[in-house]
Amino acid sequence: MIPMIPKMFRDIESRNNCCDPLVVSICPYHHGKPELQEIEELKIKMAKRYVNGTRDKSIHADQDVACALYLKVKDMAGEAKKYYDFESSPAIDDESFTKMMFLDGCFVLRYIYSSVHPQQDMDMKIHHKAFVQRDLFLLENQLPYIVLQALMSTTFEASEWKEIIRYGFGLSLNFQV
After folding, report:
1. Closest Cα partner for 123 from 135, 136, 110?
2. How far apart are CA 144 and CA 124, in angstroms?
3. Cβ contacts of residue 44 below 8 Å, gap of 6+?
4. Alpha helices (H) in 22-157, listed in sequence order
5. pTM of the model
6. For residue range 78-115, what is the model confidence (pLDDT) as tens digits?
7. In whole angstroms, what is the distance from residue 43 CA to residue 101 CA?
């Protein structure tokens, strides 16, 4: 379960701004906030770049790749939805949730890939890059790993993604890809 920050913690004035994303919303809790719209538009561009970079040779046209990846996310969206506390946040219909998971997942993976390969332009202001990395670590701004896994499965071998993620965040992670 990806919980929301308890109200009593948010009520502490000095902590309030450490709970919310500054530039990018990942997942339903902060989705649609006006102050995060600049990056919402960038998510579509980065999703296209992610789709264009897929290595699945059995899929030929970019549109077919996008559809195939979207269907993978759609197949597991019901399971992914269980990770969120919709009692404390606005409800979202299944199609909107799937679209959000697809765009957010593609954005996160393209961001990580572009961080590891600096020659890959993100079309992002330099100060936004730092805030995006901060926002990706917030408790209320997480994607279920199964979404990322569904999207990663057609782009790189599992061992390649593991190394990209390790290097991208400078972490020594021990997880199954």
Report:
1. 110
2. 24
3. 103
4. 37-52, 62-81, 94-116, 126-136, 145-152
5. 0.82
6. 999 999 988 867 778 999 999 999 999 999 999 988 88
7. 11
